[in-house]
Amino acid sequence: MKIGIMGGTFDPIHNGHLVIASAAYEQFDLDRVWFLPNGNPPHKALSDIGSSIDDRLRMVQLAITGHTGYKLETYEARRKSVSCSYETMEHFSKVYPGDEFYFIVGADSLFTIEKWVHPERLFPTCTILAAFRDEMDTREQMERQMHYLEEKYRAKSALLITPLMDISSSGLRERIKEGKSIRGLVPDKVEEYIKKECLYESQNQ
Fold first, then answer.
1. 81 phi-psi bin (left φ>0, alpha ψ -120 to 50, beta other)
2. What single DSSP character describes residue 124?
3. What is the pLDDT of residues 14-36, one digit of tens each?
4. CA–CA separation, 63 vs 123, rounded Å?
5. How confident is the model over 34-83, as pLDDT tens digits?
6. Interatomic CA distance for residues 57 and 166, integer angstroms
7. Which residues have C-beta within 8 Å of that of residue 125, sequence separation ≥ 6?
8. Which helix (H) or strand (E) holds 100?
9. Is the bond preceding residue 12 a cis peptide, omega within 30 degrees?
């Protein structure tokens, strides 16, 4: 199978994440997209994450319910140690040797991926799909970076064309803290869950 890996803290998951996943699913004819919440990310302190891993897992599950091509993958979420992408992808490649993996990243990550832990071990495990956003870098700059990574690491990569959506998890958390609506920015079931559990409200910060 052709499997897309959509990683992140998903704090909370929002419609921008789903748009990127849908674009990857359609443009690269994927069989599945695995949503991979990170329980202990290497780039972010746990104290900076606004909700528990159980809440984030539940929100992802609510967001993707009904889409047969999407799956909640809890491998990183259930690890107690810090999860690095190269370790996760080496694990998946070993457990699912017959599958082809596509690792979905934002445009900015294409230019910082060399700063990740052991990028040279990540590249052989997957094709990098870099979401192309008009407000970031031009197509030409991204294609030059992709060529550079191919020359240096034999990395396989491709542009993922996505609509421009100005949504961020941090912005959503701030809106909730300020008592503003997030309707239309997250799936309805996720909005209902956030309200029910009083997530991200000022007293919980």
1. beta
2. G
3. 999 999 999 999 999 999 999 99
4. 29
5. 999 997 766 555 556 889 999 999 999 999 999 999 999 999 998 888 88
6. 23
7. 86, 89, 90, 92, 93, 101, 103
8. strand 100-105
9. yes
Residue type, 200: Y
pTM of the model: 0.92
Q: Which helix (H) or strand (E) holds 195?
A: helix 188-197
All structural domains of the chain: 2-166 (3.40.50.620)
* Dist. CA 162–CA 139, nearest whole Å: 12
Tell me the one-letter amino acid at 197: E
What SS3 state is found at 106? Answer: coil
Reading the block at residue 21, the tokens are 């996943």
Place of tokens 């031009």: 138
- The length of the chain, given as a count of residues: 205
Tell how many helices (H) and how many strands (E) occur in the chain. 8, 6
